[in-house]
Specification:
With about 140 residues, this protein is mainly beta. The protein has a single domain (about 10-140), classed as Hcp1-like (Pnp Oxidase, Chain A, Roll). It is about 5% helix and about 50% strand. The protein has one helix spanning about 70-80; strands at about 10-15, 15-20, 25, 30-35, 45-55, 60-65, 85-95, 100-115, 130-135, 140. Strands 1, 2, 3, 6, 7, 8, 9 and 10 form an 8-stranded antiparallel sheet that branches. The longest helix is centred in the middle third of the chain and has 10 residues, at about 70-80. The protein is elongated, with a radius of gyration of 20 Å. The two termini are about 35 Å apart.
């Protein structure tokens, strides 16, 4: 049997910390719609115009490690009002560790951390999963 599926993972650079993640979700950008009806329009319907851009929060997920609590350290800095809004670079890496794509989150900061996503069961082979949610004000796609 020949397994040709490629395994990708993400590398996230936040402040001076680089962390590997198995999953990144929420890379969404949308434009809100402004609807109005002009006073002299003979058609009884609204006109749609593009409005404010809106960006969803990004969620990073990875397996928990016994040593290393870098997510908790980053999140604690926000609670202490020490975190500056910074750019966060998300890199998609292939199975050889080569960067295939970059996304840059603008004015980003952590807003939520989950230290255990699934129930703890010693018979369950699935490892504990931790996640961090990031708020930001824009996404740029950059060349690797």
């Amino acid at each position: 049997m020949n397994d040709t599926t490629e395994q990708f993972y993400f590398q996230v650079a936040l402040n001076d910390c680089v962390i590997a993640f198995q999953e990144v979700t929420g890379l969404v950008e949308e434009t809100q719609i402004i609807e109005y009806k002009t006073g002299n329009s003979p058609i009884f319907s609204t006109v749609k115009m593009p409005g404010i851009r809106k960006y969803g929060n990004i969620t990073f997920k990875k397996g928990m490690l016994v040593k290393g609590n870098s997510l908790k350290t980053l999140f604690k800095a926000v609670q202490m009002n020490q975190m500056e809004r910074k750019s966060i670079t998300i890199s998609l890496l292939d199975q050889k560790g080569q960067i295939t794509m970059h996304w840059v989150l603008l004015n980003a900061f952590p807003v939520k951390i989950t230290m255990q996503e699934n129930d703890i069961n010693p018979q369950d082979p699935i490892a504990a999963v931790e996640s961090m949610e990031i708020a930001h004000e824009g996404i740029e796609i950059a060349a690797p």
